[in-house]
Amino acid sequence: MKRITYVIMFVTAILVAPRLLCAQEVRSIYQDLPKSFFENPQPNDSVWKAVPATMVSLLPQNITAPGLQSPSVETANVKSIHNGKWMAVQLSWADASRDVNVDTSKATDACAIQFPIKGGDKTSPFMGATDAPVAITHWKGIWQNDVLGKYQDVPDLHPNVWVGMYLFATGKRPFPVTTSFNTVAARNTLGSIYVNNPIAQLHRAIPVEELMAEGFGTLTTQPHQDARGNGVWDKGTWTVVFARPLSTGDKHDPKLVVGGETVIAFAVWDGGHKDVGGRKNYAPWVPIKLEKIP
Amino acid sequence: MSEVKNWHLNRLMQYPYDEKRPNKQLAYVFDTNKCIACQTCTVACKTTWTSGKGQEGMFWNNVETKPYGGYPAAWDVKLLNKMGPQEWDGDLYTGQTIFESQDAGERVNGHMPETEDYAYPNLGVDEISGVVDRGAFFQGAHNVWMYYLARICNHCTYPGCLAACPRKAIYKREQDGVVLIDQSRCRGYKECVKACPYKKTFFNMVTRTSEKCIGCYPLLEQGEQPRCVQTCIGKIRMAGWLSKPGEERQDNPIDYLVRIKKVALPLYPQYGTEPNVYYIPPVHVPKEFLWEMFGPGAEDAIAQYRAIRNDPKMMAAMVLFGNTPKIITRYVSDAKYSIGYNEKDEEVVRVPLIEPFFERDMFDPIKNVYRHNTA
Ligand code: SF4
Ligand code: SF4
After folding, report:
1. Minimal Cα–Cα distance from A110 to chain B, Å?
2. Are residues A241 and A97 in the same domain?
3. What is the pLDDT of residue B375?
4. Which domain covers residue A22, as residue numbers?
């Protein structure tokens, strides 16, 4: 039953988007690059200039609610490179504004890539299916700011805020959240931070998160984080690089084989359009081939 | 979508999940006629639960002045406007709920407030409905009006917030009907903020997740009423357990006021969430406004309220308000007292139906002074 459901969803997606029928293949080209290239990947590294790009069309996610009725980002460019041990995927798209704040009426720019764990024909591109999980790596602009030491604090959104006191906070006004709330009692006033919610991290080390999913609403942070990434915005374009070891031994990770082929899916969120969660633009499975080492 | 029974609307309605009423349902009665907008409840809640960073503009309890006040700004009129005119046929709601009128791509018909909408929690405070005519004087009834509306999460039977969450991070507790956001599961999509017609889930810009009133469940678990109820200066509030429809008991004060006398009414029942804060409507407000806000039972509720002297049981229920921190599950009254009992059937409060009356002499011979209150 489950399988029929996602086959139908896939067919629907193809029918509504004939241009996807000609979705190209992404080639992950081989280059003898050091591990450091992947461990702290730089989106604008000159190595990328020579790598051929594949353009993917993005569709508004309208298979499940909440969703988008029309796309906020229509295309993205994809490049990929590997060194036999690590692989990197570069995703770039046009976005006139660098939106990296979150609040009730604000959202952050973001993107994600997705691989099947078992094989593209065994699961759904739409967040996977029961017993057919997918592995997702998610990057957010606001996380990039976090690792740059610019964790969004209240005065960043409300410069004139004045608060008499914060219970249990230490240090001096304006009591930066990253330094004044380190005691247990102070952390206890920051609900999801106190319970170590993976999206509520005051001291994030990398701007990407590895997740798994087995269908809509099941997105879960992986216990072991193997992915790396970075993103930069320059003159109306976001360029984000994801990197990961080809094989990690982690059962939640995809196995990527040199000379082999798998599929990859993409998602892009425009913060300025208030995209968040299922309100996103996506490209379902695109074949990706890892070039042989000559 | 499932078909569920909503007793506020007297009909079946669409809801994304099956009808599943909790074993006990937390419910409150607020008497709007007694609220003085002292905001003691607001501050009690604030200092207890929302003193942290990112919660500066967050009030799980707020008290606003109607008709113009609202926190977040215009929370109610924006949705009323979006939904457009809707109809009641007697006490049957024939209009659409927020679960029946959503656009494509939405789970619930809602609207997302702007960040700034939370910046003025006291917007419209004490503003009256219209202009006082030049030369007007008091003739026993004011020709303009206002009243205070104290608001918290309604711990709805069919929560809009819960229906909207694509991650099922919001749940309604089996043991007391309290609606909670799982702080470790929420990913900050804010769908609940958009969907709650009462705007009682809030986004925390520092923790990047949504937060809401928790009904002071640690107190409920000890048989005590929530903080905002315990601290209410005007004694306008009572919290307790509302029985399932058809199982109401005459000796449960909440059942008596809400289901049997129908003197306390849900706020904007037309949205369809079956909210569980019940308001005794303000007696001096035009009926059209009350219909919109509390449904078609508003005039009857006021008539019942005005006739309280003929109903000793209602009187006995009302005098229990604000006189004990404990949750009263049963009450009895005699000629003099209203007596409340807790779940273990222990007496927790005894309140005189009429306060003792003392008359003092005009002249105080000890202090050698006249007692009077005129200048
Ligand atoms: S009042 Fe709002 S936040 Fe509270 S349960 Fe109802 S829909 Fe959810
Ligand atoms: S404490 Fe009671 S009287 Fe005072 S504002 Fe709150 S509800 Fe009204």
Report:
1. 13
2. yes
3. 54
4. 2-113+224-290
